[in-house]
Design a protein that fits this description.
The protein is α/β, with parallel strands linked by helices. The protein has helices at about 10-20, 45-55, 80-85, 145-155, 170-180, 225-235, 300-310, 330-335, and strands at about 5, 30, 35-40, 70, 80, 90-95, 100-105, 110, 115-120, 140, 145, 160-165, 185-190, 215-220, 220-225, 240-250, 255-260, 265-270, 275-285, 315-320, 325.
């Protein structure tokens, strides 16, 4: 991000040197000493060209004109990639005080989703021992990067720059690795569970979110799911309160299946049938109002939350994930994704 930012007190010569390292359609984000957005400076700026040819020691703050193009945070709406390019190729995202939080590079961002996001990263990873005895499962490495870092960067592709992570087991390791998220160009906050709260218990804290929709994901996922389509599926399903990501799963029986009655009279035969199921993918998008079903600081797993939502009259839809998806919950999955001959993991 630093290559795009320059202080307004810098000289035009310093600005020219930085601009020369960028493509012509990409501008420098000009900030003041408080990191507040001042404007965007492009190489083609006529005032800039005039002054630098007069005296390159003029300051950027001496310019009479800078382009303006920013997005305010929290986001007020969904932005498509076309809408983002209309603002600029690199766009500062500014907080309510006008301070630059991060810079979105449009070629790396598919859209902006106005959702609050919670990642569940507190589990002990019992089925992954001995790997998880000293390393929390979200920090296990796949292709040279931890599962959690991969998930955070995937979320950033959808303009999600403020993320809450719920931690418990070996929490200090996650704090040390991810920190405040600034190295990834995002802002990370943490919920530290004093005792395990299950796969949905800590979500109650998201009632403070600025957004009306909440996205919750398990931290042990390896996926390139299209979250834009996921989001639009809920928005376009007029009565949907809750959308659960689902993965098609099939079982091919190696034998013929006999259908019998109570007297074992054979009614029909299916030769090596294929059975298909829709399985929970560990990705949930729901209306913030449903958080009232989760008691604060009490254990609750996702199936319990879903059941309570159903009993409350909520309409729940399933969104079929067709992109790459892996739940790294067992050693078999972990070994598979680390073997390029067995897996087509996204880079």
């Amino acid at each position: 991000m630093i290559k795009y930012i320059i202080q307004e007190t810098e000289t035009l010569q310093a600005a020219k040197e930085k601009l020369n390292n960028l493509s012509p359609e990409v501008g420098l984000i000009v900030v003041n000493k408080s990191n507040e957005y001042v404007g965007t400076l492009f190489h083609k700026n006529e005032n800039f060209q005039l002054l630098i040819n007069t005296n390159s020691e003029y300051k950027i703050q001496d310019l009479t004109y800078l382009d303006k193009g920013k997005i305010d945070y929290p986001y007020e709406k969904f932005y498509s990639q076309t809408e983002l390019y209309a603002i600029g190729k690199n766009i500062p995202v500014c907080d309510s005080n006008g301070k630059v939080m991060t810079i979105l590079e449009c070629e790396k961002v598919k859209c902006i989703l106005p959702v609050g996001v919670l990642i569940m990263a507190g589990g002990r990873g019992e089925r992954m021992k001995p790997l998880t005895e000293e390393t929390p499962k979200p920090l296990l490495t796949v292709g040279g990067m931890s599962l959690l870092e991969r998930l955070l960067l995937h979320l950033k592709q959808f303009g999600i720059i403020e993320i809450t992570i719920s931690v418990h087991y070996l929490a200090e390791s996650i704090f040390k690795k991810i920190g405040d998220g600034s190295l990834l160009g995002i802002k990370v906050e943490y919920i530290t569970e004093s005792s395990p709260l299950g796969t949905m218990g800590s979500a109650a804290v998201m009632s403070k979110s600025k957004y009306s929709d909440i996205l919750v994901l398990n931290a042990d996922l390896l996926t390139d799911v299209d979250l834009m389509s996921f989001y639009h599926y809920k928005i376009n399903s007029k009565n949907a309160d809750f959308v659960i990501g689902m993965i098609p799963f099939k079982i091919e029986l190696p034998y013929a299946l006999l259908d019998t009655d109570k007297n074992n009279t054979i009614l029909s035969l299916s030769e090596k049938p294929e059975m298909r199921f829709n399985c929970n993918a560990g990705i949930y998008l729901f209306s913030k109002s449903l958080l009232s079903l989760i008691p604060e600081n009490q254990y609750m797993d996702a199936p319990d939350f879903i059941t309570k939502a159903l009993n409350s009259g909520a309409e729940i839809k399933g969104f079929e994930i067709r992109e790459y998806w892996r739940d790294i919950g067992r050693m078999e999955e972990f070994n598979a994704v680390n073997d390029p001959l067995q897996d087509n993991m996204p880079q």
